[in-house]
Amino acid sequence: MTFVAANTGQEIMTATANTDWAAIRARFPILQKKTYLNSCAYGALSTDVIASLQSYINDRLEKGTDWAYWVERNESVRTAVARLLGATANEIAVTASASAGINSIASSLHFDQGRNKVVISDFEFPTSAQIWYAQESRGANVVRVPEKDGYIPVEHFEETIDENTLIVAVTQVCFRNGARLDIPAIVEIARKKGALVFVDGYQCMGTADFDVRKVKPDFVVGGMLKYLLGTAGIGFLYVREALIESLVPTMTGWFAQADIFAMDSTQYAPSSSARRFEMGTPPVPNCYAAEAGLSILAEIGLPVIETRVGEITAAIIAEAKSAAFTLAVPEDRCRRGPMVTLRTHDEHKLVGELENEGIVTSSRDGNLRISPHFYNNQDDVDALFRALRRHKHLMT
Ligand SMILES: Cc1ncc(COP(=O)(O)O)c(C=O)c1O
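Above are the sequence and the pyridoxal-5'-phosphate SMILES. Below is the predicted complex in C-alpha cell form.
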C-alpha cells in the first residue's frame, strides 16, 4: 500500500507496505463511521478489546470469584508493558493511573537530605506538575523550564539542572502542542549532575520505540487509554532495577507488600520488585482491556507503527502547509510526537464543527489537536482537510 499526499502527489508510504492496514482498520469499528483523529485523548476501541472485556464478564458469570486468575491478568499486563519498554517485569508497577505512579515515587523521595530541586517544564500535563508542586510542603523546590516559541531546547534544561537537582521530571510529548522533548539528551545532562530522571511518556508510548536500556531514564509513567489502545483506569510505572529497593514509598497498600496474601496487618514489608509502587486491589476489568490493546501493538510491532505514524503525520503537515495553515507543533520530525497541532481562531467552535461532520479531534490552548494512530489512512487525512478548508475562517 502506498500513501500519497493529496496536494503534492508525493508517494510517502512505502516502509509499511507489507502490513495489511485495511484488515487492521476493520478491527476498529468507529473508523467505519467516523474520521477518528483523537488518539491523544482516547485510542479507538478495537474488536479485540471489546472481546476481552466481554470475556471478563463471562469469567465473572462462569467462575464467580477467581482471584488467582485475576492476579495473573495483572501479571500479564506487567509482562506486556515490560516488553513494550525493553524492561524486566520486576521493573514495572501496574497502576490505576499515571498520577498514582508519580505520587508513589514522589512519596519515596526525601527533599530534606541534601538535594531538593525538582526540574519540570512548561510542557507538563497538569497532573505531573501539580504532584511535584505538592511536594513543596515536604521541602521540594520546583523549578520550571520555560517554553519558547512552542519548544524547549535542551540547552534550557542544561542551564537549570545543577548539583542541587534531585530529579528532572518531564513529559516526553507536550499534550498541548505535540512538541517532543529530547529525552536522551536530557537524561545525559541529568546524569552528569547526579540527578534522577522521570519521564511522563503518556502522549507518545505506543507510537514509537522507547527502549529504557538505551534511553536510560530512572522512571517512566504512561497509561493505557490513548495510544496503548486499552481503557481508562489503568497505567504503568517503570522504575530502574538498581533503584527499586532504595525507594520506600509512603503511599502504599496491600498489593505492594512482599507477600500480598500474608494479610499481615502488623507491619509494612514492601515487595523487592516495582510492585512496591502499587497500592490496592488491581483494576481487574481494565487489565483485560489493557492486555488486548498491548497485544495489538506487539502484533504490528513498534518500528512499523512508528514509521506508519511518521508517514501519516508527515502527510498531515504537508496538507497543512499547502493550505497555508499555521503549525503549532515543530515541523522537525525529531521535535514532535504523534500529534499534529494547528493554530485556530476558535478551537471549540472548530472542534464542534468537525464533530458535526463526523470528524473527531480535540483542542488545547488554541490549538486543534490532530492525533492519528497506525489505524488512520490517507482518506482520513483527506476528509479532515476538506473540512478544514471549508472552515478556513477559523484557521490562522
Ligand atoms: C502527558 C500526560 N500525562 C498524564 C496524563 C493523565 O494521567 P492520569 O493517568 O493520572 O490521569 C495525561 C492525560 O491526558 C497526559 O496526556
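Residues 97-99, 125, 127-128, 171, 175, 200, 202-203, 223, 235 surround pyridoxal-5'-phosphate (CB under 6 Å).
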